[in-house]
Amino acid sequence: MSIVTTFEAVPSRLFAIYAALFDSDSGEVKDRIEAWATPPSLRSRGGEEGESTTTLFSNTLAEARRLGLVEEVEGKLRLTNDARGGGRKGSDSEPHFISFMRRTLFNPDRAADTKQAGYMVALSWFLSSSPLRPMNFSKEPINELRALLGENASKFEISDYASWQSFLYWGRYLGFATIVGGGNNPDDVTSRRVIPDPVKAIESALPAIYSDVDDLPVEQFLTRLSAIYPVFETGSVRQDFEAMRLNPDPDDDKRLSITTSMALQRLADRQRLSMSGVADAASRILDFGSRQERVSRIALKAAA
Questions:
Q1: What is the number of domains present in the chain?
Q2: Do residues 100 and 79 lie in contact, with contact meaning Cβ atoms separated by under 8 Å?
Q3: Residues paired with residue 70 on neighbouring β-strands, in sequence order
C-alpha cells in the first residue's frame, strides 16, 4: 500500500491527523483523534458493533504509520520526532507536514522503506508529459502507460480511477500539478482536466539550489534540482523511468521536457529566475512545443 493505492489517505486527511497531534506533546488517544478527523455520520461504518472506527480513518491512520508520521506510545498516538521536524506548539503546522512528506517521498531509500517508491516513478512519467495536452481527471491513463512502457506499467501503481485521483491530489498538493474545470459544480469530475505544472515545486527548491551562489550553469542547476526532486531531468528516478520506455527519444539528453521548460519560463516571467544563452557554453534546449530556445545559465532573482 502507498499514498497512491490507499485512496483514503489524501492530503487533507493525513494533514488532519498531523495537525491534531501537532500541538500535543504527550499524544492523544486514538478515539479522540478519530472524532476530530471523521464526521459523526461516518464513525459507525466499517467496524464491529460498539467500535468507533471507519475505513476512512483506519486506512488513513495505517498509511500515516507506514510513512513514519505517527507512532503509538503507551496507548496514545503522537507525531514522530522526524515528522514534527522541530515544529513548536502553536506555530503553523502545515509547512512542517509538507517538509516531512517531501523528505519521505523524494528520498529514494526512504521512499522504498516506507513503500512509497511508486509515487516518484509515476511522477517522473507525469512530468515527462506535455501540459499542452491536458489529461482527463476522471479517466485513469493505464492504456497510455502500457503503450509507453509495456510490462513496466505495473510499477506505476496507477491501475484504476481511485489510484489515479490519489496520485493527482498529491501531485497538486506538493506543487506538481494543476487541476482545472468543473465549472460551478465541484462534484462534476467529468469536465476536469489535469496539467503537469511543477512551478510551485521548483520554486520551493530555489533557496536550497542557490544556497551559496545566485547564478549557475544549466547543468549544475539541473543537478541540484534533481538532488532535491529526483523526478526531474538528470535525476535518478527520472533516468530509471526513461530507461523503461519502449521507444526512447534520442534527443532527450539535450532537450528539457515541455513541462520543465514551461515551468522555468513561468518562473522567469515572474522575475524569480533569469535564463540566458552563452556562446560556446554547454546548453540545454527549452522546448515550448511551437518553438525552442537554448539556455546555458539560470540565475536567481529577488523574491517577488
A1: 3
A2: no
A3: 79
